[in-house]
Fold each of these.
Amino acid sequence: MQTIRNQILLLGSNMSLIVRKTGKFSTFENPAVTHTFSESPRTPPAPSAPPELSELPEKPESHSIDLEQVVLSCLAEKGQIADTWEFSLAAGVDHQNLIGVIKSLMVDNYVRDEALLTSFWALTDEGKEVCCKGSPEIQVFDAVPAGGIAVGELNRLLGDVAKIGMGVCMKNKWLQKKGDLIIKAVQVVVDETRAILNHIAQGNCSASEEDLKNLKKRKLVQQITRKSYRITKGVDFREKRIKKMADLNKSMIGVKEEMPAGTHWSDLSFKAVNLKSMGAPALGGNYHPLLKVRAEFRRILMDLGFEEMPTNRWVESSFWNFDALFQPQSHPARDAHDTFFIKDPSQTILVPENYYDVVKRTHETGGFDSIGYGCNFKRDEAMKNLLRTHTTAISAQMLYNLAETMKKSGQFTPKKYFSIDRVFRNEAMDATHLCEFHQVEGFVADRNLTLGNLIGTIKTFFEKIGITQLRFKPAYNPYTEPSMEIFGYHPELKKWTEIGNSGMFRPEMLRPMGLPEDVRVIAWGLSLERPTMIKYRIENIRDLFGHKADLNKQRNAPIARF
Ligand code: PHE
């Protein structure tokens, strides 16, 4: 160890240090460990002399170094790392990485650090240029010919350098004025500025305080302060790091003698518990409003004896979404402006062929007392895949299955079905419309049902969800006749709003499935979002559902019951 004041250390090709700090500093002793970095860290260090810097691998690949083990081995061997900066240079590793490893060791008290502030002088870009080209003053001096030169000409030749160099030349009495010209006052000069800078760059000489002050003023050198650390052994130092366990678990508990060596808790070391830690904030416990309303609707419908339909698929064929519902293939809802068609796979593979034939015939020429659409029914159109535009596509399949079961058993069983699930429509989005939303759908299939049964069922359901004043308005759906829009009175908003759609499925839909003539199906559908928005006073659907909805509302909400 020796004091470092005004000592120049050479640490790399172009880096010179005039260390002017603070206390003690060791000259560069090779801090590298006694074994090469590629060696397994488990191999104990050979008791040989440390290698010279030149013996170290030139650029060891950092990932092949177990830096932590290198640090520990070095400390075991030498008791300290005198300066992490020098150590990182010698080891060919990034200083920041080294500090990271040391910080991690400090957590377990394997090592201790002591900050070192090292100030040194380095050349600025301008200083480096002077090293190459010579100082401005020498450039000016060299540009003056034997017979002298006009100032303007000198400026033209050298630009800014002329102005800077001229002053120094005059001060040094290298040049003098003679009339309008500048002439040389001496014949030979020495470029001391360049010489000093070269020395600083090479790092093998000391510069006087005076010179450094001057060079700094001329912005040719700058003082750099670097923070590094002296590392010594900590109170819990070991040559090999033992991983501390974060948790005590089942596999560490038992009769020690019966357990594999080193697995019993008493053989392990554990991380200290930080009793001051705040811990992760507990999230609030509230369901999303749509889930709450869904749960309530579900319970009501189940109480009313409805079974839930398996709606857990979003992709349907046009056949089930439209054709089976007697929706003509030319219907505007079937174009890409209203429906999201699937590109890949664009076509479905399977439809029940016998049923398909009857559906096709019913569309083209009618049957079951219908005249049909008189159209040319296209298979390509029917087979197109899409994101279902309504859950009625599932209702159709449930009714088809009901008819198939009846064909096998010879007996028709009345059924009540419901579903609450997602549907997709290619719509312009606004405060009340999204491209995807949730539909609540229900139907009852039984013999000789009437419109009165439909109105009664709907009234019962809506009463249970708190809407008691209802009005029905005739409407049109391709698959129901008659059809009714459902309006509910909102006592707070004091207005009638449309809350659903309903009807009796047409014979053109039911009969091709094979359902008996007297089996009627009453059905209705509504969105889940509309009543939820009314209930929770949400004005914009985007605050309720979709990528703009703020999930923190659920996370931060106090736990409350619906
Ligand atoms: N499918 C209709 C819609 O999407 C709802 C509905 C279902 C209407 C059943 C009548 C019968 O709006």
Note: Residues 392-409 form the longest helix (18 residues).
Amino acid sequence: MNDLAPAIFPPKGIGDAKPSNKAVLDWVHEIATLTQPENIFWCDGSEREREFLIAESLRQNVLIELNGKKFPRSYLHRSSPNDVARVEQFTFVCTPTKEEAGPTNNWAEPGETYAKLRELLSGAMRGRTMFVIPYMMGPADSPLTKVGFEITDSKYVVLSLRIMTRMGEIALKRLGNDPSAEWNRGVHSLLDVNPDRRFICHFPQDNTIISVGSGYGGNVLLSKKCLALRIGSYLARKQNWMAEHILILGVESPEGRKHYVAAAFPSACGKTNFAMLIPPAHFKGWKVTTVGDDIGWMRIRDGRLYAGNPENGYFGVVPGTSYKSNPNAMRSIAHDTIYTNVALTDDGDVWWEGKDGPPPAHAIDWRGDDWTPQSKEKAAHPNSRFTTPTRNNPALDPDVEKGEGVPISAIIFGGRRSDTVPLVYQAFDWNHGVYSGATMASETTAAATGAVGRVRRDPMAMLPFCGYNIGDYFQHWLDIGKQLTNPPLIFNVNWFRKGADGKFLWPGFGENMRVLKWIIDRCEGSGGALKSPIGWLPSPHDLDLAELDIDHNAVDELLGLDHEEWQKEIAAHKEFFDSLGGVVPEELQKQREQLAAGFEL
Ligand code: SAT
Ligand code: MN
């Protein structure tokens, strides 16, 4: 299945929501002149438009309808097998100088890159429809909210962006008619979905993104990683706010005391599961609610950090999602959902590795081939995804639409580490917390192409998403801290530590509530902790482990520091900082020396 289908011609009243802002019209004209589409479809986000595009997508095999009794208004899309994840090696930050992009980004000279892309886009939409999508990132009344336009030749992108953003009239209204208003220009073309002609290019100074040659989520839903994080982080530094790869959740105690917590984990490390956590029976009366599962925009207000979710949908990893691991996600994806690259059963159901119940006797796998439980291949791609509206989430926080955002009590960093990093610890203060975030590492996942399971440094989970020099990004965190009179406490977690037998020591999922509870206790000044060289560690008694079937030794191991491992870890921090070539702020170098000294005592 692919999305390279011929142009579609909508009936009157559909596809004609032409905006009035002259700057937008001029830009669309320029791109249409270059790409030569058969026609232009101006999206308004209406229900009629959705129905028309769904019908066309079904007719052209871009989508397959699922069993409507089980999954109302839900569909399966298969991307090209060569196009199933973000492509970091083909992702570029095109700033005037290489230094502005910094040591962690692929840099390309803007003039040359525009020229190359212009050549690739020349005539690229011949015989196709060019969709113009207005969208808004953030709730209508937030000062941080941004407007973007995405031009695309993919119906899948239109239908997905409709879920992931506030799309259509609402964005046009927010933009207004001022031709000098700030808005993001996004151009996407599938071209021929060839990895040799696949480039995801960002021009932060021009607030512009151009993505070609891919039809997969993160590469083509330009609102998400491209605007909300790469361009977003660039704008955030300039405008003194923060664009981060974080989930945001609310925790309410049985007495009705509520805290909001933000957590930065790399892609496919459980952000969605954590954001939708259901506390175990022992935590009767506790409630966790979701503000966001992937991206948070934060600003300073009354000396505190306030965070909001710029998105309007979830683009979550499917494999492993079940009623056991994430019941709220399962309920969310039971209707009005687009699945990408999962398996299709004979009765129009979907299947993936880790779903509840036995596998089907026969299915069509993510590539479109026959599959049985005996097959060697996976039924669903490890990076298969659901695209579902936030309103589907039964645990949605009541304040998600609040323009001012929610006040953040704690920031949590975390990654996948089989060893070294304990289950949880608290940084001594903001700058120490920034250091712990800057040096965090995680085993790589299927969310990006390349090797899986390799430990790599992923500062603040932003390695693939920071749109400027990482040294300046670290400094921005330090500078924000200076402006906070009531900063969030900073923590690190690691749900993924393994024992000598290679098995996970911690049960994870809902049981992570036990760690969250300690974090909340610390925010309220009531939780106990022991001072260690890396920060405040809970003793086993400080964690509420009642009714949890876990071995004492496992708990000791989870909370323990192995000096030899930490010597290696600190050496790896140094190696990482050195590899960045002198951009790391002095303050973080100082933090590293203090940490190293702590282990020499
Ligand atoms: O493909 S995406 O970049 O949108 C998902 C992720 O990697 O977090
Ligand atoms: Mn993500």
Note: The first strand starts at residue 39 and ends at 42.
